[in-house]
Design brief:
Strand content: 15-25%
Number of strands: 10
Helix content: 25-40%
Radius of gyration: 25 Å
Order of helices and strands: HHHHHHHEHEEEHEHEEEEEHHHH
Number of helices: 14
């Protein structure tokens, strides 16, 4: 029997529409709206992210040609100007809170059984045009926004995000995020702040990061480094007691310093408040940071998160939130099928067949060729 739902219907199946409706009511997103409900706005933007649409007019034209199948998704094709107004005026908070709900749902479904809970913390910048300079002007680099993400490498999904102007320092957003006890946070030099490290330690969590070359430490103990490995030293240390302007250093507890030589010959000074784990484990945790860099590259180039359909702060925040929700839905859809192993290949096939009457479970199968007509065989179908 022919599959009756479109591929996009399958991708959107995990969406918590009841929670979505409650968020719309909470934020008053559909108040005095006559032409384009917020659900239709979301589906239009999600469609644009999945198929790689280049503009609002591109989304309008594509969805207008698929009006019948769009109807079965509970949405309606938008006009370009109406969608533009919705992105500019509808509260982006609807999608930020929706992301948190979908992220929790995805995280429960995809996380792997492991003793260690790891979170990677990082930020990436995205360029904006001069039309966004009223809120995102950054004198050194023009207009831009910054996406701050907390990422779970075991489930391979983001668990938290915020969007700021590019001029906002990474550590400002990091200090505002909640710290989970028992979790190990890995981050780079952009979060070099002893007071934040002390905050993580006080909350019962662990951290793994780098020390700057010029940071002086006091060695309390030298431990044996693993033989025949890239680990050069394993030290128990304390940080300087005083910081700039003679302030007392809040991170006064003993820490672990592990020296690691890279293939290039460069030596990294990795520091952690985990005093018991093997030195190689600490080095591997810091190396795990590469996963969030791959995630940033994936969403930028595959979901075109570096190309924006609007210039206002609300429109940019909305598009980033929808793109991250789409990423979570793709991860769930990919995990639910066995036909395509690669997430990148799966996302490309989804984009190419988005409104086709086809299931996610047969994306890896070639369509059978039409039967060849045998001229020597009588055609009994003729009446």
């Amino acid at each position: 029997m022919r599959h009756e739902n479109s591929l996009m219907h399958d991708v959107l199946k995990p969406m918590p529409w009841g929670a979505f409706d409650r968020l719309v009511d909470k934020h008053g997103a559909d108040q005095r709206v006559r032409k384009l409900p917020t659900k239709s706005q979301f589906i239009a933007l999600a469609y644009g992210q999945l198929c790689g649409a280049h503009s609002l007019r591109d989304i309008e034209a594509r969805l207008a040609s698929q009006a019948a199948r769009l109807y079965h998704l509970g949405a309606q094709p938008p006009k370009r100007s109406t969608l533009s107004d919705a992105n500019r005026l509808r509260p982006a908070g609807v999608y930020a809170e929706l992301f948190a709900i979908v992220a929790a749902q995805t995280h429960r479904g995809l996380r792997k059984a492991t003793k260690e809970a790891i979170r990677l913390v990082d930020a990436t910048s995205v360029s904006l045009t001069s039309l966004s300079q009223d809120w995102a002007s950054y004198q050194a680099h023009g207009s831009g926004a910054k996406l701050h993400v907390v990422y779970d490498p075991n489930a391979q999904v983001p668990v938290r995000f915020t969007v700021t102007a590019a001029r906002t320092n990474d550590i400002v957003e990091a200090k505002a995020m909640p710290i989970e006890a028992g979790v190990t946070y890995a981050f780079d030099l952009g979060f070099y702040d002893f007071s934040w490290w002390a905050q993580i330690d006080a909350k019962g969590a662990k951290f793994v990061t780098r020390l700057k070359k010029n940071t002086r430490t006091t060695i309390l103990e030298t431990r044996a480094a693993p033989a025949d490995s890239a680990i050069l030293a394993d030290l128990l240390i304390t940080l300087p007691q005083r910081m700039a302007r003679s302030r007392k250093n809040p991170m006064s507890k003993p820490l672990r310093e592990v020296h690691v030589r890279l293939d290039t010959g460069k030596v990294l000074r990795i520091v952690s408040n985990d005093l018991d784990a093997p030195a190689q484990t600490i080095a591997d945790l810091y190396k795990k940071r590469w996963d969030i860099e791959l995630f940033f590259r994936w969403v930028k180039h595959t979901l075109k998160i570096n190309h924006f359909l609007g210039t206002t702060e609300n429109a940019v925040r909305t598009q980033i939130a929808v793109a991250l929700i789409v990423y979570l839905l793709l991860r769930l859809a990919h995990a639910a099928q066995n036909a395509v192993e690669s997430l990148l290949t799966f996302s490309r096939l989804v984009g190419a067949n988005l409104m086709q009457l086809r299931s996610i479970h047969d994306l890896g199968l070639r369509q059978p060729p039409p039967p060849r007509h045998d001229p020597n065989q009588l055609d009994f179908a003729i009446c």
